[in-house]
């Protein structure tokens, strides 16, 4: 008789559940292969700089959740190849990771998940008025990811930044990840006063179901643009007599969470969903549904010319890549040649690479070439276009900022 108790236990523990993939939800493919990767790329230079002078670094994570920032920062690829190291920063190189969050459930979850990690500590705190990190030795990285600081008002974030600047001793870094004010997801907020908190919701968690906005509970956050953020940071540096260097980057300009819902612009486009399909090895991306349209931003051109120009510049590159892939599928060699010759050198090289892949698909013995090879590479090209944009101005779902403090 075959014994089944081992399989019974495995099923009870969830090891045989259905893999739902990454087409929707908090940890969808765009989050994993676009947004997380962008954060890792941007944080790599500061970590390298610290490791050049220190054997171990100290990290505090504001709005840590259950420790997601720890997973991000310890899964950044190393620079040198080949190497015996899997990642740039190993857990052994972290002297302390202090996670802080207002949610008791999140803190309890973090404590449970990392109960065996002696160098990790979790504290429940309301960062609008509590600063328990000041009781610790100075940190090398003061970080927050995925819009945590946007839950604070301008005054509250200003106080937190001043506390951070006062707490530093040697060179250190402050990482802020905020909601971008000028995202095409919510032009209704572009003209808001600098100190206003505006509504946001997590309706995207319920996709693919189409929900009415009145059925979703909102909460209020601060949407940021570069100029206001620079002003806050320079004021804090002046008060604390610190010298700072600021880098900003726009993240998820056309694949933000509410691009698909259209809750805040009344023009839903399934761009994030289609990019999720591209990254998924089981689905063919629907290239015709990848074409982006921002014509609904025309009323804002005169008042926000820099913003609309930046978004439109990226959109033109995005749609060029999409049109190029359509031309490959239709074997339209005249258009293929025209697009390669009419774009800048960087984009032209990306298009040539896509053409080579498509025309050499017989070299890739997979079940579905588009789903397994072509789609993921197309998604990477679209992501790289965003990463190559100039300094962020606040026109993405996220405005990512790294401050070097001296």
What can you see in these coordinates?
This protein has 406 residues and is α/β, with parallel strands linked by helices. The protein folds into two domains: 26-253 and 391-405, Rossmann fold (3-Layer(aba) Sandwich), CATH 3.40.50; 271-387, no CATH class. It contains eleven helices and ten strands. It has helices at 5-12, 29-51, 68-73, 104-113, 154-167, 226-240, 271-279, 305-329, 333-342, 345-359, 369-387; strands at 57-62, 94-101, 120-124, 141-143, 172-180, 198-200, 219-221, 223-224, 244-251, 398-405. Strands 1, 2, 3, 4, 5, 8, 9 and 10 form an eight-stranded mixed sheet that branches. Strands 6-7 form a two-stranded antiparallel sheet. Helix 3 (68-73) links the parallel strand 1 and strand 2. Helix 8 runs antiparallel to helix 9 and helix 8 packs parallel to helix 10. The radius of gyration is 23 Å and the shape is globular. The termini are far apart. 40% of the residues are buried. The model has no long low-confidence stretch (mean pLDDT 93).
């Amino acid at each position: 008789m075959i014994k089944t108790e081992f399989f019974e236990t495995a099923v009870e523990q969830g090891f045989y559940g259905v893999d739902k993939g990454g087409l929707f939800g908090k940890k969808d493919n765009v989050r994993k292969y676009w947004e997380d990767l962008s954060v890792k790329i941007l944080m790599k230079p500061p970590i390298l700089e610290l490791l050049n002078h220190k054997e171990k670094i100290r990290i505090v994570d504001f709005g840590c959740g259950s420790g997601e920032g720890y997973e991000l920062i310890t899964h950044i690829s190393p620079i040198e190849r080949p190497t015996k190291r899997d990642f740039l920063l190993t857990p052994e190189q972290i002297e302390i990771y202090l996670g802080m969050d207002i949610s008791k459930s999140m803190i309890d979850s973090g404590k449970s998940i990392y109960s065996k990690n002696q160098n990790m500590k979790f504290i429940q705190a309301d960062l609008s008025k509590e600063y328990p990190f000041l009781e610790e030795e100075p940190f090398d990285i003061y970080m927050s990811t995925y819009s945590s600081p946007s839950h604070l008002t301008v005054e509250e974030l200003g106080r937190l930044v001043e506390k951070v600047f006062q707490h530093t001793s040697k060179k250190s870094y402050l990482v802020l990840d905020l909601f971008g004010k000028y995202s095409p997801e919510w032009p209704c907020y572009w003209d808001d006063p600098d100190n206003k908190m505006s509504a946001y919701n997590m309706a995207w968690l319920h996709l693919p179901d189409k929900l009415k906005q009145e059925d979703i509970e909102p909460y209020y956050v601060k949407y940021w643009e570069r100029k206001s953020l620079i002003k806050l940071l320079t004021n804090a540096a002046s008060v604390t007599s610190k010298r700072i260097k600021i880098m900003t980057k726009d993240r998820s300009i056309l694949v933000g969470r509410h691009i698909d819902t259209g809750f805040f612009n009344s023009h839903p486009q399934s761009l994030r969903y289609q990019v999720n399909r591209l990254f998924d090895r089981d689905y063919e991306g629907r290239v015709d549904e990848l074409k982006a349209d921002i014509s609904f931003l025309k009323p804002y051109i005169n008042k926000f010319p820099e913003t609309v120009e930046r978004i439109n510049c990226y959109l033109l590159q995005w749609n060029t890549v999409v049109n190029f892939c359509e031309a490959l599928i239709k074997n339209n060699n005249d258009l293929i040649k025209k697009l390669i010759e009419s774009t800048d050198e960087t984009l032209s090289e990306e298009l040539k690479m896509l053409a080579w892949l498509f025309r050499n698909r017989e070299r890739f013995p997979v079940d579905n070439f588009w789903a397994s090879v072509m789609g993921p590479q197309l998604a990477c090209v679209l992501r790289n276009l965003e990463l190559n944009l100039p300094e962020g101005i606040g026109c993405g779902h996220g405005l990512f900022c790294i401050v070097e403090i001296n």
